[in-house]
Specification:
The protein is of the alpha/beta class. It has a domain of about 130 residues: Rossmann fold, CATH 3.40.50. The protein has eight helices and nine strands. A five-stranded parallel beta sheet has the order 2-7-1-8-9, sandwiched between helices. The protein has a four-stranded mixed beta sheet with strand order 4-3-6-5. Helix 5 packs antiparallel against helix 6. The termini are far apart.
């Protein structure tokens, strides 16, 4: 089990729900919150940088990391694999910073097993119809891809009960405020603030 001065936040959502937009806004606005950089076997896309967007490795290296227990979680998506590096995560958390992991539901459940007090957030679309409209409106996917994404979304949403917080993204600003509130409220929990409270108490004279 990972010991961590920093907090671990996990966010999942069906494709097209706005998860990436919300996560990016959090990283830009909330201090001491680091976005997790995944290890992947897929090749870099134009403009992507190793160590910033992903840690890009080949299959042989990924296999070696699996055998060494270097992943907190990893999954295969189609023919590519993605994982969260245990040494990287431990190093960031040891610095006292919080980490936000944007991962799909299978990986999220693996994180829950490895880090039981990880805070899990699921972003919901306003409705199935709204999600379908968003997917078609992006213009990125074929009709077949839209259908597959909707089927996968149904599968992912079956697991919403495994998460601590559910946020409906029907209004981006409101959804962001709710998401940010989860971060600040977690940081203020008694268990996380105990050392600070004890240090302040010791400053007061006894008697």
């Amino acid at each position: 089990m990972i010991q961590h001065p920093g907090n671990v936040f996990v966010v999942s959502a069906p494709s097209g729900t706005g998860k990436s937009t919300l996560s990016q806004r959090l990283i830009e606005r909330v201090p001491d919150l680091i976005f997790s950089t995944s290890v992947t076997t897929r090749p870099p896309r134009p403009g992507e940088m190793d160590g910033q967007d992903y840690f890009f490795v080949d299959d042989e290296k990924f296999d070696a990391m699996v055998r060494s227990g270097d992943f907190v979680e990893w999954v295969q998506v189609y023919e590519r694999r993605y994982g969260t590096s245990r040494p990287w995560l431990e190093q960031v958390l040891a610095s006292g910073k919080d980490v936000l992991l944007d991962i799909e539901t299978t990986g999220a459940l693996n994180i829950r097993r490895a880090i039981p007090d990880a805070v899990m957030v699921f972003i919901l679309p306003p409705s199935a119809q709204a999600l379908e409209t968003r997917l078609r409106g992006r213009g990125k996917d074929s009709e077949e891809q839209v259908r597959l994404r909707l089927q996968h979304a149904r599968h992912e949403m079956d697991l919403y009960h495994a998460y601590d917080y559910l946020i409906v993204n029907d209004d981006l600003d409101r959804a962001y405020r709710q998401f940010e509130s989860v971060i600040w409220a977690t940081r203020a929990r008694k268990e996380r603030m105990l050392a600070t409270a004890q240090a302040i108490l010791r400053e007061f004279p006894i008697g």
